[in-house]
Structure formats: C-alpha cells, structure tokens
Amino acid sequence: MKNMLSRPYRWAVIYSILLAFSVSYTLLDTFVLPKSLADASQISLPSTTTSGSSTEATSPEASTGLEQSEAVVTDTSYEDENIKINIDTVRKYDSTLYIADIQVSDPSYLKTALANHAYGRNITETTSDIAEENNAIFAINGDFYGFRDDGYVLRNGVAYRDTARSGDNDALVIDKDGNLSIVSEGEVSLDSLSDQGAWQVLSFGPGLVEDGNIVVDSSSEVGQAMRSNPRTAIGQVSELHYIVIVSDGRTSESEGLSLLQLAQELKDLGCTIAYNLDGGGSSTMYFNGEVINKPTSGRSIGERKVSDIVYIGY
C-alpha cells in the first residue's frame, strides 16, 4: 500500500516543481529577461531642402549638411547657430518643475533613441546612459514602450510595432517637419500615419493641450497612477519651438503634479499642443552631461532604467 501511494505523490511533487518553474520562467521572460527584436543602431535621418521642408529620408551615411557650431554653454543654457535651450527651475504646487524652452533650426535635431540601440522586450538603460551613447545635448525619458506589448512604436522613421492599444488612447506624432500632433490609436493605423509623414510615434498619453485648449480635467489620470506624480511632458509653441516640463514628485520636498496642473503650465507657456509621456520613477531630464532633476520612485532617489528617450542633438 505504501508503494502504491508514494508513486502518485512523487508525480504530484514533480508536477508542482515543473509548474512553479514554468510560471517563474514566464514571469522572468515577460518582465526581466532582455529580448532584442530589432537592431536600431542604423537609422536614417530626415533630409531637408533649402526652404526647410522635409523630403524623403536619406541613408544613415548621407549627410544632412547640418554641422555643430561652437556653442555657448552654461549650467542652464546651450546656444549655437542651430540649437537654443534654456532651462528654468521653478517652485509651484508644492513641487519642483524643470522647464526647458527649446528652439532648433531644423527638425532633424529633435530625435529619439532606444536603449542599447535595440527594440525589444525588457531592454532598458537609464535616460542619461542612452543620452550619452547618442551624444545628446538634452534628453528626457520617452514612453517606455517595452513595458507593454501594444501601442504604436515608430522611431526615426522606422516602424517597430503597429499594434494599437485597446480603448481610447492618445498617441503622439512628430512629423518630418518637427510638428507635433495627437491621434487616437484606435482610429488610425500606423501605416497611414507613416504615409502622412510621421517620423516618430510615441504611445503613452494622454494628450494635454490641443489647438491651444486644455483637454484633461481634474479627474484625468494615467491608469494605476497616483493623483500627484513626477511627470514628463512635451509641447509645441510654434514651428521648431518646444517646451518640455519634468516635475519631481512623491517626496517630502516635491509633491508632484496632476495632469491638469501639467496641462495648465504648458498652456500658460504658449503651447498649442502638448502630450504626457511616461512619468513616475521614469521622469528624468538630462542636460549637458548631467541629470538635473531628482528622479524617484518614492523609495529612493535615482534614475529608473527605461526603454527609450526623446532628445536634442546632432
């Protein structure tokens, strides 16, 4: 009788071990193990005509004719003949806000980059590391595309993921002329956006300002987020003129912003369109070789590794 009972018991133990291993591997594969799906190290850049309007993309080796001139640089500013950046630090809403006013002479200076120059799952680096690898002058975290399996991903003219998020979700489009627009992922395909001149598509949101009007309210929030958070957002004032805001949050020194507060700031600074990027522990502003805000997840001060950045550089 003892032998007859022990065999099923042994199989039950073996089955439990295999099941635990399978579940553990699935979790590791989904959330931990890096998996590169495409090489992003070779990208093409938008070329421009003498009038400044974009033409077809050129090869990575082709020159855009844009060369870096001697720059005047301070702790809070950068200026050469093509790029002008000024950063202010202000206190508002019991929070610290870092506001960058950016003007460029050509749309090719507004770029994105992926961690480790690769598109894939769980491929992450800090914003500052990605920025340094791409010789960025200024950078912020992007949409952390690698945290999800859906949401459009188009970077530097290359389509990596064409699966829309379910429901009513906003995506940010940056076209070849450097203009920002906001679309509903469920209403337009990535192919059609590419055909219409999209050069970057980031999938986070929501949109904050459209046509100069605030499009969020006091109840608006990113799913599963706190009411006040570290935030990252980008807006456009006019042609090739952008505003970026990163706010600290979740600390005794800085409470963080609501989406409505963030939208109000961008509107007051003249943005006719603005979009919310990944926030929380991801929110990071990098300038001239340094992280200038205090990224935090609420447990410690320090950069979170992310999938991607938006940056200004040559």
Task: Name the descriptors.
single chain; 314 residues; alpha+beta; 9-stranded antiparallel beta sheet; 5-stranded antiparallel beta sheet; 4 helices; 25 strands; globular
Describe this structure in words.
The structure is a single chain. The chain has 314 residues and is an alpha+beta fold. It is globular and about 80 Å long. The protein folds into two domains: 33 residues; 279 residues, no CATH class. About 7% of the residues have low confidence. Strands 4-5-6-7-20-19-21-17-18 form a nine-stranded antiparallel sheet, with helices on one face. The chain has a five-stranded antiparallel sheet with strand order 8-25-11-22-23, covered by helices on one side. A three-stranded antiparallel sheet has the order 15-14-16. It contains four helices and 25 strands.
- Euclidean distance between termini CA atoms: 78 Å
Strand order of the largest sheet: 4-5-6-7-20-19-21-17-18
What low-confidence regions span 5 or more consecutive residues with pLDDT below 50? 23-28, 47-63
Mean pLDDT, all residues? 86
